[in-house]
């Protein structure tokens, strides 16, 4: 890439800089002058050029391009409506030193920025702030290198890569290596792993964050640190302690895990009528976390039919690390009620199973290269979601009320994900993610709608009612939640630069249990000015006066 030099002499630049900084202190900064000061500052703080037309985007310069870049990876349309605030400008670093310079310059100019990798945040906090008066967006999508080292069983992957690209690059080099992260290919490696990151290998190998060996991060002073330089406290915090709180992750070094050459996937669906007494669903709750850890068997609840006749469909979607003969034996012994047969089972490679589970249409299975396109398989939708953890099987009366609640709506998706296996064996304080032994399954509630939805608030209200209905059946004190399924209903930081420690303790305990206090201590140490912040970032300790 060419180094873009400004068309001025040095003295002109410094004069301009002086002029800009004076101007900036006198008048409230327009985004144009802010951007100019920022660019000028960046140029002084990096030796690597950044062609402006490829790295800087403003509404003023090209409104349609700005909109396109802003919306490119934003998953939740709720945060893209006209009434939502927009960043003053977007900067896409093309070199790691640009990220360092961004921090130095943003601090100096008093600019608040948000950081986005894959844009899948449930509450849009990586690209929209509803609590800052102004903000800019640092989008890492151009930092997306993946270097797989099969000999070393490891890979370095940059934050802006998608998890699908990572999987593809691993499989390109080996059929028997994999990585235990999320199932959805367009997830950004940067944000995803900061919250834990689970997928179909979790019962065998734990979370992505459990399999991180090293990381490169830029801290609040613009320093680039690896594991040795950041120290074990900060290295602990970034593996599950949530994104946008401790610094900017530039890349992760991950540990690859073994997968067999042949694995088996299957989907068996039952309607309410086919499981009228919840015999199958009740059995699933008793065994899903206890079956062999090679088996990952989730339940997807959807509402099907029309107003004349609606029912709930329960899809049992499974993945087994082995051949179908062995799977059939496991199921016959542990869960015969599901009635899995030979013809339900499809054998394939691990990377094909990624595509099978990705949400892309699967018959026929699309080419693996689909994992390289950063597009989301489900397109852009409006949604609200929540999470829960079940510690005991939900009683049949609870289930009856639950499906009744589902039937009030249509585009419902509720997913039950089994725990157990490796997840039980990792201590709660190993990394910040605390949902371990004692959890039978995680629940995700998800309600989406489209552009022509007349009453979006009603959808959100329904979701909150469902959550309230579920209270007696799930974890309590605290009622646990998964930070990667961010939910601002649980509470949020309200004031721009001040943290609300006491309020945050309430939602913090839901995401991190007791680990929250350690996260706060680390945050206070590494970022005392709360430079990295958003609606649910880890707060600093209140200063005693
Ligand atoms: C359709 C869909 C499917 C999903 N499937 C799964 C799944 O299978 N398993 C699972 O565990 N989760 C899943 N998730 C949740 C997902 O893990 C989180 O939304 C995650 O935060 C996404 O990371 P991102 O980089 O795409 O998001 P972003 O929106 O870019 O970032 C999320 C958060 O991390 C911060 N952040 C982003 N990049 C960095 C960085 N480089 N350094 C520091 N902080 C950063 C952001 O500021 C923000 O706070 C899913 C989400 C969606 C929308
Ligand atoms: C704005 O960007 C779009 C998309 O790249 C481009 O087609 C268009 O020519 C640009 N418009 C101007 C005025 O530069
Ligand atoms: C998990 O918890 C159960 C009961 O609380 C306990 O008996 C078991 O030993 C624990 N397992 C591990 C691996 O810690
Ligand atoms: C935010 O700060 C302002 C001014 O400092 C204060 O008046 C207000 O009560 C604060 N709000 C919250 C929710 O803490
Ligand atoms: C982290 O959380 C675990 C479980 O909630 C707790 O046992 C441990 O004491 C916590 N660690 C610290 C340092 O607070």
Number of strands: 18
Segments where pLDDT lies below 50 for 5+ residues?
1-28
Structural class: alpha+beta
The coarse silhouette is globular
Sheet with the most strands: spatial strand order: 15-12-14-13-17-18-16
Query: How is the main sheet built?
Result: 7 strands, antiparallel
The helix fraction, in percent, is 25-40%
Hetero compounds = flavin-adenine dinucleotide, 2-acetamido-2-deoxy-beta-D-glucopyranose
Radius of gyration of CA atoms, rounded to a whole number:
24 Å
The total count of helices amounts to 17
The average pLDDT is 92
Total separate domains: 3
Strand coverage percent? 15-25%
Please identify the top-level CATH class of the largest domain.
Alpha Beta
Question: The CATH topology of the largest domain is what?
Answer: Vanillyl-alcohol Oxidase, Chain A, domain 3
Tell me the distance between the termini. Answer: 51 Å
At CATH level 2, the architecture of the largest domain is 3-Layer(aba) Sandwich
């Amino acid at each position: 890439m060419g180094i873009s030099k400004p068309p001025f002499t040095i003295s002109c630049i410094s004069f301009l800089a002086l002029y800009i900084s004076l101007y900036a202190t006198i008048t409230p900064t327009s985004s144009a002058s802010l951007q100019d000061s920022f660019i000028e500052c960046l140029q002084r703080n990096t030796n690597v050029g950044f062609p402006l037309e490829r790295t800087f985007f403003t509404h003023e310069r090209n409104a349609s391009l700005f909109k396109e870049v802003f919306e490119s990876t934003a998953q939740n349309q709720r945060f893209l409506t006209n009434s939502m605030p927009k960043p003053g400008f977007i900067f896409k670093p093309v070199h790691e030193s640009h990220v360092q310079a961004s921090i130095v310059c943003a601090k100096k100019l008093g600019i608040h920025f948000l950081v986005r990798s894959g844009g899948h945040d449930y509450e849009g906090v990586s690209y929209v702030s509803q609590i800052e008066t102004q903000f800019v967006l640092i989008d890492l999508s151009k930092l997306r290198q993946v270097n797989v080292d099969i000999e070393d069983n490891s890979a370095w992957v940059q934050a802006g890569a998608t998890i699908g690209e990572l999987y593809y690059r691993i499989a390109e080099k080996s059929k028997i290596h994999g990585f235990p992260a999320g199932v959805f290919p367009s997830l950004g490696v940067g944000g995803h792993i900061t919250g834990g990151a689970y997928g179909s290998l979790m019962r065998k190998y734990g979370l992505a964050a459990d399999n991180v060996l090293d990381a490169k991060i830029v801290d609040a002073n613009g320093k680039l640190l690896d594991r040795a330089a950041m120290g074990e406290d900060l290295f602990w915090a970034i593996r599950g302690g949530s994104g946008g709180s401790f610094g900017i992750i530039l890349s992760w070094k991950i540990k690859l895990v073994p997968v067999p050459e042949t694995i088996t996937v299957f989907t068996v669906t039952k309607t309410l009528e086919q499981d009228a007494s919840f015999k199958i669903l009740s059995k699933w709750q008793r065994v899903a976390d206890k079956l062999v850890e090679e088996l990952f068997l989730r339940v997807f609840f959807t509402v099907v039919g029309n107003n004349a006749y609606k029912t709930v469909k329960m899809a049992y979607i499974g993945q087994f690390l082995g051949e179908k003969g062995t799977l059939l034996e496991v199921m016959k012994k542990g869960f015969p009620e599901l009635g899995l047969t030979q013809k339900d089972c499809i054998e394939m490679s691990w990377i094909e199973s990624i595509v099978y589970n990705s949400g892309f249409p699967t018959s026929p299975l699309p080419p693996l290269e689909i994992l390289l396109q950063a597009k989301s398989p489900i397109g852009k939708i409006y949604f609200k979601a929540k999470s829960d953890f079940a510690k005991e099987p939900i009683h049949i009366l609870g289930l009856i009320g639950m499906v009744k609640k589902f039937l009030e709506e249509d585009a419902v998706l509720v997913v039950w994900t089994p725990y157990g296996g490796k997840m039980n064996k990792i201590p709660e304080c190993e990394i910040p993610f605390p949902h371990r032994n004692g959890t039978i399954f995680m629940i995700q509630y998800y309600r989406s709608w489209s552009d022509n939805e007349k009453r979006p608030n009603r959808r959100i209200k329904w979701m909150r009612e469902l959550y309230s209905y579920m209270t007696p059946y799930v974890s309590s004190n605290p009622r646990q939640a998964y930070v990667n399924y961010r939910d601002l209903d649980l509470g949020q930081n309200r004031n721009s630069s001040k943290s609300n420690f006491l309020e945050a303790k309430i939602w913090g305990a839901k995401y991190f249990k007791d680990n929250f206090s350690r996260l706060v201590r680390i945050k206070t140490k590494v970022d005392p000015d709360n430079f990295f912040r958003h609606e649910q970032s880890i707060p600093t300790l209140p200063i005693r006066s």
